[in-house]
Structures are given as C-alpha cells and as structure tokens.
Design a protein that fits this description.
Two copies of one chain form a homodimer. The first copy, chain A, is mainly beta. Chain A has one helix and ten strands; from the N terminus they run H-E-E-E-E-E-E-E-E-E-E. The longest helix of chain A has 8 residues. Strand 2 of chain A pairs antiparallel with strand 2 of chain B, so a sheet runs across the interface.
Chain lengths: 163, 163
C-alpha cells in the first residue's frame, strides 16, 4: 500500500496536474466485482492477453438476468472502474524520464474518468459468475459494464436512416 | 421529443425493469461534447462506420493539453455518456416482438451505466477539436474519454511481472 500511495501523490518530472472539477456530471452503479490473480500494481500486466489467466466477473444480484444471451459470444467487451487511480494529470511521464505525453494519447489508468476497457475471451458463465481471459486489472476492481465485442455483434433491431 | 419520451417510459412485451439502485458508486466528469449530424434517435445509425460522416469532439478547456501525442494514432477509442437512455432494463426486446435478451448480450444504449464505446478513425486535431469518423451517437452527447485504440498501442513504460 505504501508504494501505491506514494505514486498517487507525487508527480514525476514534467507531469502536470490540474484542479479537478467536481465529479458529478453523471453517476455510476457498480454492477459487480472483478477477481484477478493480481493484488498489487507491480504485478498487474500493462495489457491483458487472450492467453492470460482466467478471471472471474462476479455479477451483483439485480443484474444477473441481464446475462441471458451473452453465452453465444466468444469475445466480450468489459468496462471497469480503476478505483485506485488519480484523475488530475493532463500530462504524464510513463517512463519517469521527463518525457511527457497527453493523457488522451496513453492507455494509462490515470485519466479524468478512470474507466478501463478490455476485449476478453468468454470462457464460460456459471450462475452469477462470468469467466474470461484477457484482463489486466487489479483484484477487486469494480465492474461497470459487459457487452458483446462490436466486431462480432450485429444489431438485432432493423437498420435506421443513418446506417 | 414526444417519441423519445414515450420510448423512455413504456415497456415492450417481455421487457423487465428493476428498481434502480442510487447511481453514486463513482462520479463522472464530462470532458467535452460530441457534435454529430444526428439530432433524433430515429436517424442515428445503430452502429458507426469508418466511412461515415466526420464528427467533431469538442474538448473542454482544462483537458486540451491532454491531446498532446494523440495525433500519431490512426484509430482512437471514444467513450461517451448516452445521456438520453433509461438504465433500469435487465431484459430487452430490441425488435419489440416479445423475444427478449439480457442487457449485457446487447450493445443497446439502455444499460445500467449507459456508456458508449466506439473505435473511430482520427481525421485531424484542430486546437480543442478532434475530428473523427465512425461514431453513431446523438449530437450533443457528453464525452468522457479518448484513448489510442488498443490494437495500435504499445505501452510506453516497461513491462511488469504480469506481462
């Protein structure tokens, strides 16, 4: 915890933080919890791999019926809340070498809305638990959405004017 | 507005709504606004196309420096808040024919956390405005994040134990 706490308060050379506006433009509902093998940032991969370990998405009660039909997809998109990330950096130095990049040019967890997105392989669904491969987040990360990967999804409803 | 308001309150045959828990597990900051050619849901495409019209992402002042470095990517991932969507359906009937599917097996805008994700082609950056092709959202949709598409992104920092 000490290392993570330090990272969250100190700036590296060249990094720029702003005074964060209040985070109340919209509110999220956590729909579950993600269980992974990684309990510290140091061991968490930078990017998930589809041949990585199986991780468990525990879906909270009210949302379990929403899993119906998900089993037919091989790849699903997972959205989660990077609850340990600071949100106020506009310029970041990923290597800590003084070279900085804008936050939107990085997939760093540090961003104004720390939402992670991953495309994962669906391994199976067991009741309220969805088993997947390809994640790269800490154990205990709150889940905010699941949907079929856009590449394998065809809308059910008929096309509209803009299609 | 009348048509949209009706859609937002009536259920189709077979659809199931729940009592929504309070949406206060985490709070979002809108970082900009999306300008598209579509002003009603009826004309908005079901899915964006990379050969679709150019849309404008207007970035709010504090976050403009975060665009530095984004210009090098051809494809970027855009996250936005589907502000007109109800959030309480666990089963939905996309065709309105009585056949229902779980919310997580659809890419419908109706979901507990109505966050849209699109991978778009970066056309250009002009000051605080990012020009892209491939969106499928209403004009005026709030923007919540921009990041390089995972397929074309290599982490800047060195690999960690899990990589």
């Amino acid at each position: 915890m000490t290392v993570d706490a330090t990272r969250d308060t100190r700036l590296r050379a060249g990094e720029v933080a702003i005074d964060l506006p209040p985070a109340n433009d919209a509110g999220l509902i956590f729909i579950g919890l993600i269980h992974t093998p990684w309990t510290t940032r140091e061991e968490t991969p930078r990017q998930g791999r589809l041949d990585g370990p199986v991780c468990r998405l525990e879906i909270f009660g009210p949302w379990v019926p929403s899993l119906q039909g998900l089993e037919q997809f091989e790849r699903i998109e997972v959205l989660y809340w990077l609850h340990r990330s600071r949100r106020d950096l506009v310029l970041q130095s990923p290597k800590g070498d003084g070279a900085v990049r804008g936050t939107f040019s990085l997939r760093s967890p540090v961003r104004p809305n720390p939402i992670g997105t991953s495309v994962v392989e669906l391994v199976g669904i067991e009741g309220a638990v969805v088993l997947v491969r390809g994640l790269d987040c800490l154990d205990g990360t709150p889940l905010i959405d699941l949907k079929p990967d856009r590449c394998s999804y065809t809308p059910i409803a008929s096309p509209r004017a803009g299609d």
